Amino acid sequence: MSKQRRNRAWYGKLDRDGFIHRSWMKNQGFPDHAFDGRPIIGICNTWSELTPCNAGLRDLAEGVKRGVWEAGGFPVEFPVISLGETQMKPTAMLFRNLLAMDVEESIRAYGIDGVVLLGGCDKTTPGQLMGAASVDLPTIVVSSGPMLNGKWQGKDIGSGTDVWKFSEAVRAGEMSLADFMAAESGMSRSVGTCMTMGTASTMASLVEAMGMSLPTNAALPAVDARRKALTHMTGRRIVEMVDEELAMSKILTREAFLNAIRVNAAVGGSTNAVVHLLAIAGRVGVELTLDDFNLGSELPLLVNCMPSGEYLMEDFAYAGGMPVVLRELSGHLDRANTVMGVDVSAYGEGAECWNRDVIRTVDDPLKPGAGLRVLRGNLAPNGAIIKPSAATEGLLEHEGEAFVFENIEDLKANIDRDDLPVTPDTILVLKGCGPKGYPGMPEVGNMPIPARLVKEGVRDMVRISDARMSGTAFGTVILHVSPEAQAGGTLAVVKTGDRIRLSVKGGSLELLVSDEELNKRCEDWTPDPAHYDRGYAKMYIDHVLQADQGGDLDFLVGKDTRPVTRESH
Description:
Layout: H1 8-11, H2 16-26, E1 40-45, H3 57-70, E2 74-79, H4 96-109, E3 114-119, H5 124-133, E4 139-143, E5 150-152, E6 155-157, H6 161-171, H7 177-187, H8 199-209, H9 225-244, H10 254-267, H11 273-284, H12 313-319, H13 321-328, E7 373-377, E8 380-386, E9 397-405, H14 408-414, E10 427-430, H15 451-455, E11 463-465, E12 477-482, E13 499-503, E14 508-511, H16 515-524, H17 535-543
Parallel strand pairs: 1-2, 1-3, 3-4, 9-10, 10-11, 11-12
Antiparallel strand pairs: 5-6, 7-8, 8-12, 9-13, 13-14
Helix pairs in contact: 3-9, 4-5, 5-11, 8-10, 10-11
């Protein structure tokens, strides 16, 4: 091999250090010629039995290895922290940045030339991309893929979306507890991520739209043999990318991020895409702001998947998946490079749609103007977001009195009180659930409808918080209010009885209190004492950025591509 690769600093030396690096690797049975200068490909695996979404990644890693060997590379698999969205407390988002640190330092410290990121569960994909972007080697993503469609009582049910509906039906007395428990067993029928267009499927879709994966990565079911074939082809391609020196920064340009925002609108993607794309852009050094997300507000919703539609990811895959969406949006996308070394428009060339009820055309969309909307005003000086495609249209222009929950414990203790003084026009406000406040910015923004109103048939209300919500959730929910309450944002001083005005059309969110009164409240406000005083959580609270900046740690923004020069011996 004539090309001097990064791995030569580890395995190419004919001295004591080279001896040690090669010799210890040989205890796994690797022969001499594995260290002849060929590309060494790291397979960054977030497999874990505590992350059910990623439980199939062990098998997918074997497919990547086959492809790497076939292309003349040397595959080496390594683990990083895995974030089980449904299993971790207080919230997996608290640990996204920790995963990013793990990925970054692992890639930098080991003698690898390119990386395949194996992830899927909500925070694993953005965390891996953030970490890899800060080192900027040739990198490609393979997502774990969605679960098979849920099945119960002869119909399809979707993870997350139907859970919220079933839960409200039980609270309303419309569904028995026995039926609720029976549906549990039919919901998750295979390994894989949520089969709704939740955050995991959204991020997989955006990864494909940004050119960071091979075509069809977004939607193929986790247990479909075609996904394993995709991993084989990914292994082949990463070796070629190393030869071409096709680093992440050559793919993740501003144009790629703007394309992701447009595609997020078309697929009815998660609000969580906002904090993740902002954080990834910060690592690459791309200028991206919260206001850029208004770019998708006029684009139509094309993908008829829960929670904005009725189908599931398995149906989306069989209808043609992301290549069809990219073809439909071809007139709206910027030119941008991909891991294939071609413009992203090539991903949609020749794509055929096999079910027009699942993937609509731009001329006949599911909903017009369905992208995320950024809101600003004295209640959210640095911005907040709402997902109109998952909201009740009649509530998108609304004024009402606030009923305030000071924290999540207050909400849980009082939401089901029979004497809760609320009406369908009341605006529910939740504080203390932002990046610093919870900590970690949990998915609790889609607050339950008060039990008394649920029994009266109410299924949606305007809800405002500094929290996030699951990508599988729905409702007229205003999220990511910035600055958060714990950081002294206006949200901290909202009182029950205050009037709030929401205008999604006008992009505004206003607390109807005089400036004089607001200033007095802010002067009298003091933050809650920190709940964590040690370990990673303390470091997180001390350094986390606000939601409008992506929620990364301030000292991690940017990248460091300097070579490692000091030996470990």
